[in-house]
Amino acid sequence: MLSTKTLFARTVQTTARRALGTTTTRGKHTVPDLDYDYNELEPVISAKIMQLHHDKHHATYVANLNVAEEKLHEAQAKGDVAAQVALQPAINFNGGGHVNHTIFWKNLIGEKNGGGQLHDGVLKSAIENKYGSLDKLQQVVNGKTAGIFGSGWGWLTVNPSGQLDVVTTANQDMPSNIGHIPLLGVDAWEHAYYLDYNNVKADYFKNIWRVINWKDVARRYDEAMSKF
Predict the structure, then answer these.
(1) Which single residue of 29, 91, 147, 191 has CA 20 to 30 Å from 58?
(2) Signal sequence: where (predicted)?
(3) Is 196 among the annotated ligand-binding positions?
(4) Cβ–Cβ < 8 Å for 115, 122
(5) For 12-34, what is each residue's pLDDT tens digit?
(6) Annotated binding-site residue? 101
(7) Is 57 annotated as a binding residue?
(8) Which domains are seen in the chain, by residue range?
């Protein structure tokens, strides 16, 4: 039987490392490069927000995650289980911030490069079968995301039964924490929209669909369904 220390270490490391295989180097997490320029998502999301969001907010999660993991390794080497347990909230929060934002950047693309366009295919059929239409899905996601108390994320996921689902997570919690596979995330933290939309976050939720990279979402859906 695995020791309590070993089980805990595996849990926190899996939380921080999940879905990050291409964003680490020599054991350290790094902020992934964007596939587009900061201004490509305008007027939906301004270049100023993108630069702050990517270079400052995401970078802070990565820096704090690396520090917390280094402390975790030190605690493991000393056999200090109490210190490992104390580090779990920092690793979960910053690891989730890193994972969630890494997905978010890939979920976006400028309108001139296909943003907002969901073409015929398996994902579109699944959305229409479950929600009736893409417009109806957007309404469900926007409604649930607008209902978040405080900060968090709205998600289109594949649930443990292999069905499309819409869920929200608080703060930087990840859908994988509840057994869901994330396909599309909408960042509902104020730093994601406030400079452009002030307190009218409903407009942000409405407009972000114009820059959703449905090719990326469809790819994630295909990968998720291959597990069922």
Answers:
(1) 147
(2) none
(3) no
(4) no
(5) 344 444 444 434 444 799 999 99
(6) yes
(7) no
(8) 4-25+45-106 (1.10.287.990), 112-225 (3.55.40.20)
